[in-house]
């Protein structure tokens, strides 16, 4: 992470700074005074590309639109004024500046009486509060510049749209419009007051003393979180599981900032919170009896299953819908009742549709029955979309999602309390703490973020086959690692002794080759 050069003169509050302030005023101060620049993650790049694609698609419906270019807000605002004065009916990227705040609109339509319609394009599927706040900001600055807002619309993605592979996206089917004028108008005054608070916050270094909280990772992880953790207590309140915002605010008011200072007998704490505090404060590991009993009740064969996939905002294949989970690989280590271990896998990194091969291959491996042991069963829930999107492979998809399973992550969250581990969301971190195994840090492809980046390389034009094969091997290595650690965790906390290693076959001593007979002496 590198620091950006400090801008000359006061900065304008823009959309990104305001979003930072809505998350945390300390983040707003840091983003304003000490902005940093990092290479966008592969997922962020994919999301940005989808947003640009949707904006371009929406503009097709406004053929008379003129684009306002330029990153400099003041210059873009001047160009916007010129176009409005010239009577241009539609503007893309119209920019307005007032009271130290800038606002840019995706699509702006001017009526004959001068009233304005705003259209904001979002890659989500419904009008959430963040989207409405964005339009409220535009409406506020628009009014401050002397313009009248007639209507505000959100153009979001239609989740029921089913794509046809190879075809262009039809704008009127992929996008849907919602009139949010009333909601936006109700939020304009609140936005005005919020901007006043933000202006004061960027001038007040006292906000740097604000503690971390549940908001640090909502709606997205704050880029300054690691810095704030280093500056804060060793065991901040945000590490307490099932922490609600009201309880968090109550504890802050009481001056309680560290888990070691929180009474575990406090009224209102959940059983999981009390056990977590006991483990932390007494520095001991607590394992509830039901963990072992739940694991022992799993019927064999046991399929230690790992699945790799990524959620894609825009569909690419036949019958695929927006925001579907796309599976690209699986691996399983299956332990049969007789102790026999069977391994199988499927990996797909090509540009073609991975879903049919994924569903049929996994269904074939699981047809022997038994129990799936996985880490976070949300992935299995995501696979239910295959029932709707793959009509020709519905039987295979149904067999996979209906298989009996146990979520090892959820089980450990509810019944295993470790003084150094408060969250089990990261399997590699959990394995490092519980098994003392940090080998997961060496994996090249692990998790959705790394997978998205790897697939971008594997599916790039003119990619070498050796590069694609290497990415496939790295993906398989991550899946295999997961299967092996799931099995180890099961054996450790299920009271199941690991099977003894199979004896190596005896080495058969090979008979020494006879030496060649000496050549006869030459006769004289």
Could you characterize what this model shows?
There is one protein chain. With 524 residues, the chain is an alpha/beta fold. The protein folds into three domains: 162 residues, Restriction Endonuclease (3-Layer(aba) Sandwich); 74 residues, no CATH class; 214 residues, 2-Layer Sandwich (Nucleotidyltransferase, domain 5), CATH 3.30.420. It contains 19 helices and 17 strands. The strands form five sheets. The chain has a six-stranded mixed sheet with strand order 3-4-7-8-9-10. Strands 14-13-12-15-16 form a five-stranded mixed sheet, with helices on both faces. Helix 1 packs antiparallel against helix 2 and helix 18 packs antiparallel against helix 19.
Chain-wise SSE layout:
Blueprint: E1 2-3, H1 15-23, H2 25-33, E2 36-37, H3 42-59, E3 65-67, H4 73-85, E4 90-92, E5 95-98, E6 101-104, E7 107-110, E8 116-121, H5 129-144, E9 149-157, H6 171-174, E10 175-179, H7 181-201, H8 225-231, H9 245-253, H10 271-282, E11 286-287, H11 289-296, E12 302-312, E13 324-335, E14 341-347, H12 355-366, E15 371-374, H13 378-382, H14 385-389, H15 394-401, E16 405-407, H16 408-415, E17 416-417, H17 427-434, H18 447-458, H19 465-493
Parallel strand pairs: 3-4, 8-9, 12-15, 15-16
Antiparallel strand pairs: 1-2, 4-7, 5-6, 7-8, 9-10, 11-17, 12-13, 13-14
Helix pairs in contact: 1-2, 5-7, 12-15, 18-19
How is this structure best summarized?
The chain has three domains: 40-201, Restriction Endonuclease, CATH 3.40.91; 210-283, no CATH class; 285-498, Nucleotidyltransferase, domain 5, CATH 3.30.420. The protein contains 19 helices and 17 strands. The protein has helices at 15-23, 25-33, 42-59, 73-85, 129-144, 171-174, 181-201, 225-231, 245-253, 271-282, 289-296, 355-366, 378-382, 385-389, 394-401, 408-415, 427-434, 447-458, 465-493, and strands at 2-3, 36-37, 65-67, 90-92, 95-98, 101-104, 107-110, 116-121, 149-157, 175-179, 286-287, 302-312, 324-335, 341-347, 371-374, 405-407, 416-417.
